[in-house]
Specification:
By secondary structure, this protein is mainly beta. It has one helix and nine strands, in the order ββββαβββββ.
Amino acid sequence: MNSVQVMGNLARDPVVRATKTGRSVASFTVAVNRNYVTPQGEQRELTDWINVVAWGSLAEAVGNQLRKGMRVFVEGRYSTRSYDAQDGTRKYVTEVVANFVAIPLGTNSSSSYAPQQPQGNSFGGNGFGGNNNFGGNGGNNGSFGGNGFNNNAPSGQNSQPGGNFGQFGPKGKDEDIPF
């Protein structure tokens, strides 16, 4: 199985181009921090710079919605490709080909580079269930499959928001789920 999940901050604005056939492609870099302890017991932090590409309508959405410094979640596959450079040598490029890109819920972009965007937006490519925020043909500005969170409690009462999860089909009993 070739599956990659990355969450970090955009190192630069996405670059959107078109291929000779007119298909959109976006490339961007995600900076992911990780901590480790040296043999001397010191805490250190490293940053991994992960190159990501997105194709088609996902590339256009990435180019329109994402900016340097924004926190993003990317799901995709790991890919290595090669090409012949002008000097005749073979060059290799390793990158993540995105299937799904999301701005995580409840994150505050603390970077001065990032514009304030509504949180919870997601846009996906080929999967995760149709035309809802988990993929398909794009997101709905933070809603989970249509109408988003519904909080029908009277004002002043503490309650959890009710969800509109109709895209998953009719409600059923847990006992009816085949395992």
